[in-house]
Amino acid sequence: MHIHFIGVGGTAMGSVAVACRMQGHRVTGSDGPLYPPMSDVLLQAGIEWHEGYSAERIRLLAPELVVVGNAISRGNPELEFVLDERWSMTSMAELAGRLFISRNTSIVCCGTHGKTTTASMAAWLLESAGREPGFLIGGVPGNFTIGCRPLREEHHDTRAGVFVSEGDEYDTAFFDKRSKFIHYRPTVAIINNLEFDHADIFESIDDIVRSFKHMVRLIPRSGVLLVNADDPYAVIAAEGAPCPVELVGTSDECTWRITEIREEGKTTSWSLIHNGEVYGRFSLPMPGEHNLRNATMAIASTAFAGLSAAEQMIGMPLFKAPKRRLEEIGVWRGCVVVDDFAHHPTAIAATIRALEQRYKASRIHVVFEPRSNTTTRNFFQHELASCFQGASTVCLGPINRPERYSEDERLDTDRLVKDIAQMGIAAFSLSPVRSSDPTWGNDIADILANRVQPNDVIAILSNGDVGGLRSLLTLNK
Questions:
Q1: Are residues 109 and 196 in the same domain?
Q2: 57 and 164 assigned to the same domain
């Protein structure tokens, strides 16, 4: 089949496109300007992609199916042609559910935080045990070279294989406002945590809980729902589940109880009690209690898929974190530079705690770019003021695309700097007007140059380019 992707350059879209090519389909695509590594990944996979969107070009290509990316909206020339001609179209999530998951055991890893890491862990545990799972992971998993991989051909449309998905609660496409995870039809669903996020599509935490409840209703009676017992909204989302519910946490009533936690530098170890009996002791080469919880969810989900504790205890110490999850990317002026995706107050606080565990004798300098649709607005004005505890320096980049909101809707970075400073932390910010300058990272580098000492840690928290700062800190040592 010839499949055309409108918006092929997105991380998930590009990964799914490559997986389609691996299944033998002809794949073409279009997008705005693409750069390495994604442009190289597509070319190496044999995918013909074009810069810009053209109704005439897609007419000549005449694909049998068109996949419309989440970022594509009405007015796009290729989309308008597809609608006018009534060609067959779908979303990335629906395509993945149909082509890759099908009737196989579907493990869907959901939650505000930790989806990528948990999905990567579950996929790796299955892989290390020789199960060859399929997977769809939004980031770049450390143990694999691609973000999406189909199951072996003999498992298509059967119940023999296991497919692991990162269950994103964000909406599916311009024509389908349901959360993506609805299309993954979970056999095993994980709800790691629930907080307010994605202010552009959800109005409240109640809206988010409602979307998770829709997903829970799809779990078959023969499946299982794994829930963080310590998260009240996750517990609410699980109410009325039509399948067995297993609680994961530290309290005595948990089905999977975490005990005897030991944190030593880059390693976290813990014991796990399952239904009141010792299940095993595990070691993870990552710091932070939040990563331990992610790992426990991965263990519980893959146990349902047939892995033994012995197989899991062998695989877990060999896990490699996904890219941009506490990833050391270089050294600058004698300081370790760490890259992390954290963009929500809870995730920022957890990341700083993990850095304190890993680098016990080091001062931590945090660079945070308000970039998401939630943190660029003032929803978390108070929470952001308190989540940087443990840092020596906090540098706030300019608000991304500030023109989207009125001044009274936007995050007030001047006020945020004052609030952070009241905690005894040196805080700095760049004006929102700098957001259009692609080199604003130079100003942050100048601030850091006057603050850092050898053996300190610089943590970059953003899913964007950070004004070129990553390149500055990793190329200019």
A1: yes
A2: no
Q: Which residue has the tokens 């998905």?
A: 165
* Three-class SS of the chain: CEEEEECCCCHHHHHHHHHHHHCCCEEEEEECCCCCCHHHHHHHCCCEEEECCCHHHHHHHCCCEEEECCCCCCCCHHHHHHHHHCCCEEEHHHHHHHHHHCCCEEEEEECCCCHHHHHHHHHHHHHHCCCCCEEECCCCCCCCCCCEECCCHHHCCCCCCEEEEEECCCEEECCEEEEHHHHHCCCEEEECCCCCCCCCCCCCHHHHHHHHHHHHCCCCCCCEEEEECCCHHHHHHHCCCCCCEEEEECCCCCCEEEEEEEEECCEEEEEEEECCEEEEEEEECCCCHHHHHHHHHHHHHHHHCCCCHHHHHHHHHHCCCCCCCCEEEEEECCEEEEEECCCCHHHHHHHHHHHHHHCCCCCEEEEECCCCCCCCEHHHHHHHHHCCCCCCEEEECCCCCHHHCCCCCECCHHHHHHHHHCCCCEEEECCHHHHHCCCCHHHHHHHHHCCCCCCCEEEEECCCCHHHHHHHHHHCC
**Containing domain of residue 23, as a range?**
2-87
Tell me the CATH number at 331.
3.90.190.20
Report the CATH number that the domain containing residue 66 is assigned in CATH.
Answer: 3.40.50.720
Q: How many structural domains does the chain have?
A: 3
Indicate the residue among 26, 54, 87 that finishes a domain. Answer: 87
CATH classification at residue 253: 3.40.1190.10
Domain-terminating residue out of 87, 108, 131: 87
Q: What is the pTM of this model?
A: 0.88
Give mean pLDDT in consecutive 10-residue pieces for the chain, a chain of 477 residues. 96 93 95 82 91 97 97 96 98 96 95 93 98 90 91 75 94 95 97 88 92 97 97 97 97 96 91 97 92 97 98 97 87 95 90 92 95 88 93 95 88 95 95 89 96 96 89 80
- The pLDDT score that the predictor gives to residue 476 is 64
Same domain, 225 and 109: yes
Could you tell me if 146 and 170 lie in one domain? yes
If asked whether residues 261 and 410 sit together in one domain, one would say: no
Peptide bond preceding 454: is omega within 30 degrees of 0, i.e. cis?
no
Q: What is the distance between the alpha carbons of residues 49 and 76, in angstroms, rounded to a whole number?
A: 16
Residues 106 and 65 in one domain: no
Query: Looking at the structure, do residues 49 and 122 belong to the same domain, yes or no?
Result: no
The predicted structure's pLDDT at residue 299? 98
CA dist list (Å): 13 to 136, 178, 341: 10, 17, 19
